[in-house]
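Objective 1b: paired records.
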Amino acid sequence: MKSSRQLAILEIIRDANIETQEELADCLRTRGFTVTQATVSRDIKELRLLKVLSPSGAYKYATADKAENALSERFIRMFSESVIGISHAYNQIVVKTLPGSANMAAEAVDSLHWPEIMGTLAGDNTFLLLTNSTQEVPAVLERLNAMLR
């Protein structure tokens, strides 16, 4: 019963923007589950659901991987709005940003977990990105430039 209820919760939050535990309990009841708010609360903890900001501006329940994707999308948007130039030498890529934006832009790149990137080092308006080899630089530059579009 518990596993089928939790599977139903995952389906519900995937298909609808559920903002409260009571909304989730109501959806479960319409599917034939007898639940209390305490049961729903325990299921939310066990499933490790998070509240994330939806495109409409309201908060909704989501799984951790969906929350991470939403965060990555937000970082990419912030990256594209703050980067003003990209240059490179050897296995190093230098990204110029608006003042005070380099840390956020570097975090956006780090959050993508690209295997070609060894790491980033940020200042105020510039960050350095190190690739594993010079051969990987063109592919990374192409993806960075795609993020700017």
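Objective 1b, second protein:
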Amino acid sequence: MTREEKTAAIAVLKEELGNAPFFYLADSSTLTVDKINKFRRLCFQNDVTVKVAKNKLIQKALEGEDESKGYAALFDVLHGPTTIMISSNPKTPAKLITEFRKSEEKPILKAAYIDATVFIGDDQLSTLTKIKSKDEIIGEIVTLLQSPARNLAGLITATGSKLAGIVKTLEERSE
């Protein structure tokens, strides 16, 4: 790879990783071509971009970014073959890795970057599958906000029918 090709590859990685709020670094070495193609197809079907890059290029792309993003914590896991998984949903790659590993030993999670938080190690996979997406959190907030209004409407309706029942009972007694 020439210097110009490396510079171009770093620029592409820098743009992709810099614009991605969520990405995973995994080790998918030792998977056969058929198995890695199966995994890539699974990722493609779930809108997860999969790339393989040299660790030095990944590190150089992340080094040039803003230090407040916390990429420095990822540098320790950049050894051996590294597969990058970029997604718009924070837990989709974790679910895909978990699902794929029901029949295979790999990919192994090296690290995950979720909104400036770094999760390191394969033992974090179960935690990552439980992360809620932005849409799920918004849905829960809307439900919580609607709950008091529903309760109030239910009480008003119930009070009216109770009052009608009491009036009917009193009317029947007087007869």
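The chain has a mean pLDDT of 84. The domain at 3-131 is CATH 3.30.70.1730 (Alpha-Beta Plaits).
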